[in-house]
Structures are given as C-alpha cells and as structure tokens.
Design a protein that fits this description.
globular, alpha/beta, 8-stranded mixed beta sheet, 14 helices, 371 residues
Length: 371
C-alpha cells in the first residue's frame, strides 16, 4: 500500500523482554522535491488503537493520512504494531494458533503493551536512527499504552519530545460505546466474560474477513451503509466525515485482531471508573498485587509534554473523562477540542477533513517541541 503511492518503506522487527516479535513499518522520507535519505532526521513514532494496525496511519492515502504528511514534512516515520495484531502475531517460542501455546500467547492486555511493547519498539527505533529522543502519536489504545509506559517506566519520559494522545482512552466511566456498556454487568468475574468471549484472540484478520469486507463495503454494494453503521455504532455517528469509497481498503486491514483480555480490561475500566491494572478477582489480586483491588496507574509520574486531542462525539473518550485525565497529568501542553461537533473516535484517522481539523494543529505542536 505504501509503495503503491511512491513512498519508500522498510520493515523492522523488535523483540520484547517477554519474547514477542513486533513488526514495525518505517517511511524514512517522503516524496517532496529533494527528499531522500539524510542523517539526523527527527523521528515520529505512531501507535495504533485496539483491533487496528500500522495500516491505519496510511490507509486513507497521501495528502490526508498522517504517516505520509509527516514523511513529506521531513520526518522519519515509524509505525508500531502491538502484540497480537496482524503484523505481530509471533513469539520466539509460542505459537498463537497452537493448541498448547494458544492460551499463554494471548494471556495479555494492553498493560503488557505499555510495559513491554512500546519500550521495545522505541528502543529499537532510537538505536536504528541514532536519535536520543522522538515524538509520539497514539490513537485510542495507543494512548492507553503510552500512559502505562510513562507512569510505570518513567525513564521513558526522558526520550519523548512531545506525546500526542488522539482520542485518549484512559478514564472510561462516561463512555457511550454500546458494546462496552453491554459487557460491563458481566465483568465482576473475569470467568463470566471469558466464557462469553473466549480466552484468546478477538476478531483476527483472515482472508475471508478481508474479502467479505471488501465486497460488502464497496461502492454500489447494498451493504455499504451497513459497513458504515457498524463503525458508527462503535465510535459515534459522523456520516459526513466517512469516505465510503475507502471502506473496502479500511475493511481489508481492520479489524486486525487483539487479545480478548484487552477488551475485558477496557470493560473493567468502565465498570470501576478508574485507570488501573487488570482485575484478576479477589484472590487473584491478592496473589498478584498483595491487595484486594488492582493498583491505579500513577499518572503523576508522567513528566513528558502531553497534548490531548479529543472530539465531542467520541463514544469511547467522553469529554468529561478527558477532562479528568487532564487534571491528573502534570505537563499538558495542549488541550485541543476538535472544532466539529460530530467528530467521533475513528475520525482521528479516517475523517475526510482530518488534516484540516486535527493534523495541521498536531504538526505545529510537533514542530514546536522538535528541538
């Protein structure tokens, strides 16, 4: 997809401390006149959301997709893929599809993504580029894992020039997503939800799903509006900002799979109203944490410059919850409410006017903190 638009692309693999193999995609330079390899280029790292992958930063094409815009602005762009997603279903010893390994491979939530995956990918990126700092942009779960890394591994605050949280998913007490709300009454015991959802992989990308999504969602299909409404039900309704012609490409890449426990952990946050570690139940918590409840993530430890970008119609990141997050962070450099009332959760990556509404401002802040 990247090469088809005339951009260079590289594939890199980082290994986590617990053995997961994570694929990253790199666009080292853009298509602007005179563009090409150059030393000491500033680095921007992009991290996707739940059930997504690095493809979501490029799928809407040049002139709009953030990865291309950054590359054309002279940045060295790296796109991570969290464990369990399409490009990172690998481990040094465990088989994600093996009968014996399956449970152990998928026994993680986004806690492990923040503690292991982001540090591994950022370390690799800095070593490969020779840089000592980078800018970070995360969407949805890419913000959740960011705040975990910066709070539990505070040394990583020192390598972040500026961090940009698009649709920050941290406090979820007021989220409107019907899926999470429907599952919330069942979350008091993890066993109940795992019996309903399974114990391993959630919505993996398969050839059948890719083909079905492309055929059902293409222009002229009687099911195209069903595809659109599926996304609106998860993220909020904003019909005017969704380019339906691009739905087949979106559906070819998304959903990209995750662990069931990632979804369960979000349900737990909604139920508790807190930003805290995975709830294993009374006995499980005592064994793991030495307390009856999971510990909160210490957001006060975060010193990196943080920009919060949010929308009024986001069914995951409600404005009141983003305000709560803002009050807990010591160094918020931007609190940007997208100037469109209907702007929803997925619009941060796929909206027709996302460059005008979000990315122009984001690029300005990245430049300000680039030195």
């Amino acid at each position: 997809m990247i090469e088809s638009y005339g951009y260079p692309v590289e594939t890199h693999v980082a290994q986590t401390a617990d053995g997961y193999l994570l694929t990253m995609h790199r666009i080292p330079y853009g298509r602007a006149p005179g563009a090409g390899p150059a030393p000491n280029k500033p680095v921007v790292f992009l991290q996707h959301g739940l059930l997504c992958s690095s493809a979501d930063w490029v799928v809407i094409g040049p002139s709009r997709a953030l990865a291309y815009l950054l590359a054309d602005e002279g940045y060295d762009v790296w796109m991570g893929n969290a464990r369990g997603s399409t490009h990172s279903r690998a481990h040094i010893t465990l088989n994600p599809d093996g009968l014996l390994d399956r449970y152990e491979f998928w026994n993680f939530s986004w806690h492990e993504i923040g503690v292991y995956d982001l540090p591994a990918m950022i370390d690799y990126t800095l070593e490969a580029t020779g840089q000592i700092k980078l800018s970070y942009v995360g969407h949805s779960q890419g913000t959740t894992s960011l705040f975990i890394m910066l709070s539990l591994r505070p040394e990583y605050n020192n390598v972040i020039k500026s961090a940009h949280a698009l649709a920050p998913v941290v406090f979820l007490k007021n989220l409107k997503s019907p899926l999470i709300r429907a599952l919330a009454p069942l979350v008091d015991t993890v066993d109940t939800l795992t019996k309903l959802l399974g114990t391993s992989e959630l919505l993996p990308s398969t050839e059948l799903m890719q083909l079905g999504g492309e055929l059902a969602c293409r222009d002229g299909s009687p099911f195209q509006e069903v595809c659109a409404n599926m996304w609106f039900l998860m993220s909020g309704y904003d019909s005017e900002q969704l380019n339906r012609t691009q739905l087949p490409a979106i559906m070819h890449n998304t959903p990209a799979g995750s662990a069931v426990r990632q979804l369960i952990h979000y349900v737990q946050l909604h139920k508790s109203g807190r930003f805290r570690q995975f709830d294993h139940g009374l006995l499980g918590n005592i064994g793991k944490y030495g307390s009856i409840s999971p510990p909160d993530y210490p957001l006060s430890q975060i010193t990196a410059p943080i920009a919060l970008h949010f929308g009024d119609n986001d069914w995951w990141a409600a404005v009141v919850d983003v305000e709560n997050l803002r009050s807990k962070l010591p160094n918020v450099i931007e609190y940007y409410n997208v100037p469109l009332d209907a702007f929803n959760h997925i619009d941060f990556q796929w909206a027709i006017d996302v460059k005008l509404l979000v990315y122009n401002n984001l690029l300005n802040i990245i430049r300000m903190y680039d030195n």
